[in-house]
Design goal:
Elements lengths: L2 H30 L18 E6 L4 H16 L5 E6 L4 H7 L6 E5 L5 E6 L4 H10 L46 E5 L2 E5 L2 H10 L11 E4 L6 E3 L4 E6 L5 E6 L2 H11 L2 E3 L1 H8 L17 E5 L2 E5 L2 H11 L3 E6 L6 E7 L2 E6 L4 E8 L5 E3 L5 E4 L2 H11 L5 E4 L1 H9 L3 H6 L10
Parallel strand pairs: 1-2
Antiparallel strand pairs: 1-3, 3-4, 5-6, 5-7, 7-8, 9-10, 9-11, 12-13, 12-14, 14-15, 15-16, 17-18, 17-19, 17-20
Helix pairs in contact: 8-10
């Protein structure tokens, strides 16, 4: 055999061996990381994409909590991430293939089929995305079919040209001269739209409150004249929506004249103060009316969230799972949020979103606009209508309720203790 022939044979053998090794390696990868379809629990071939496989059962409570989140991931990251659920009770052999011990178990694979990470137990959507990012894999949402609305703080639909003295320091509504409350401070007068907003402010103060009432004047509802808070009589009632109303008068005689016409109860300052401070936010301890607040259940005990975001904050303050019952700020439709281990466990309806009201600070940065500018909505469409048509001065952005909770859970204990505290009461 000549030399040329030997070289050709050697080259041929090298090629054959290389092909065999490649085939074996491919088979090894396939065996170690079964490929699953995004919308079924059967093993099938799919594109070479990062994959998340959730192994559980349709009657397992944590698994059921994860189901809507997996559906969101499938929709929002279609074409970028493969997501699959395998019911191991219906397909017991699958648990053996994946070597799982408990359900649910989530297994993360890269695009080549290599296992990167696995997690046992409930795993929130935000935590799943954070884990992918930690491993160097990030995704952009699929915008097709996904509503997007983020009108950032820089351009409100309508500029606020109202004189500062006509705007309530607490809630930013127009002040009715008949219900004006004025608090005197070293830096000027703080003007509030009602006695209720005064008690909200009072509940948030961190200064010594001894004789604080002496700094305050209310307005006689009939004459419009200022009256020292400590000398006024108050007529308490309810409006057609069942929300408390408070009118201040110079004395009980004037209050009685209105009472004969409109009804209500005449009460003194101390009794009014007890009523106003009887319901407090479970997160920031701010005074609130139950009619305005979200209801929050912690270990079966009910408390309040003065706004939707503070309601979520109860999970951060207590370190416990909570259930929030809130209303759409446009329609009043119910929204129910349940948490587990500091993440969203379920959301009804699943289309619900949050408005994060923001305001520009003097240094040019942006921060929370306060509790009166936050809210939940059952849909993006409701949020748009509320902002653009009913509240054109609002500045902020749409965020997911998952993100709203995640923001609260990131707060440090000292930040939670200071939440919604006014400190020195000075006009802005």
């Amino acid at each position: 055999m000549n030399k040329a022939m030997k070289i050709l044979i050697i080259i041929a053998l090298v090629v054959v061996v290389s092909i065999v090794i490649a085939i074996k390696q491919q088979g090894k990868n396939s065996a170690s990381a079964p490929v699953v379809a995004a919308n079924s629990d059967t093993v099938t071939a799919v594109e070479n994409l990062p994959r998340l496989v959730d192994l559980g059962a349709d009657k397992c409570i944590p698994c059921k909590m994860m189901a809507p989140m997996l559906d969101e991931l499938k929709t929002e990251y279609k074409g970028r991430l493969e997501v699959a659920f395998i019911d191991v009770w219906k397909k017991p052999d699958e648990a053996k293939k994946y070597g799982i011990k408990i359900i649910p178990t989530q297994i993360f694979y890269d695009a080549s089929g290599k296992e990167l990470f696995r997690h046992e137990g409930f795993f929130s959507k935000e935590d799943i995305l954070a884990k992918w990012k930690e491993m160097g894999i990030t995704f952009e949402k699929t915008t097709s079919g996904v509503p997007v609305f983020e009108r950032y703080v820089y351009r409100p639909a309508m500029a606020d040209s109202r004189p500062k003295e006509q705007i309530c320091y607490m809630c930013d509504v127009d002040i009715n001269p008949k219900t004006l409350v004025t608090v005197k401070t070293e830096k000027g007068n703080v003007r509030l739209c009602s006695p209720h907003c005064y008690f909200i402010m009072y509940s948030c103060l961190t200064e010594d409150k001894t004789d604080f009432e002496k700094k305050v004047t209310v307005t006689d509802f009939t004459s419009g004249a200022p009256v020292p808070l400590t000398e006024a009589a108050f007529l308490a009632g309810t409006n057609k929506n069942g929300r408390p109303t408070i009118q201040a008068y110079a004395n009980t005689e004037k209050a009685g004249q209105t009472q004969k016409v409109s009804g209500g109860n005449i009460i003194a300052l101390e009794a009014l103060k007890q009523n106003e401070l009887s319901h407090r936010c479970g997160f920031c301890d701010r005074a609130c009316y139950p009619q305005d607040a979200a209801k929050v259940f912690v270990s079966g005990i009910a408390t309040w969230g003065c706004c939707s975001h503070c309601a979520l904050g109860v999970a951060a303050r207590t370190g416990k799972d909570i259930e929030v019952h809130e209303k759409d700020r446009l329609t009043g439709e119910p929204i129910v949020v349940k948490t587990i281990n500091g993440s969203i466990a379920s959301l009804e309806p699943s289309t619900a979103v949050a408005w994060f009201g923001q305001r520009q600070k003097p240094n040019g940065t942006w921060g929370s606009a306060g509790c009166f500018h936050q809210g939940f909505f059952t849909s993006v469409e409701n949020l748009k209508k509320w902002v653009l048509e009913q509240n054109p001065r609002e500045t902020g952005k749409l965020i997911s309720i998952h993100q709203a909770l995640a923001d609260k859970m990131k707060l440090l204990p000292e930040q939670i203790q200071k939440a919604c505290k006014i400190g020195e009461c000075s006009p802005k």
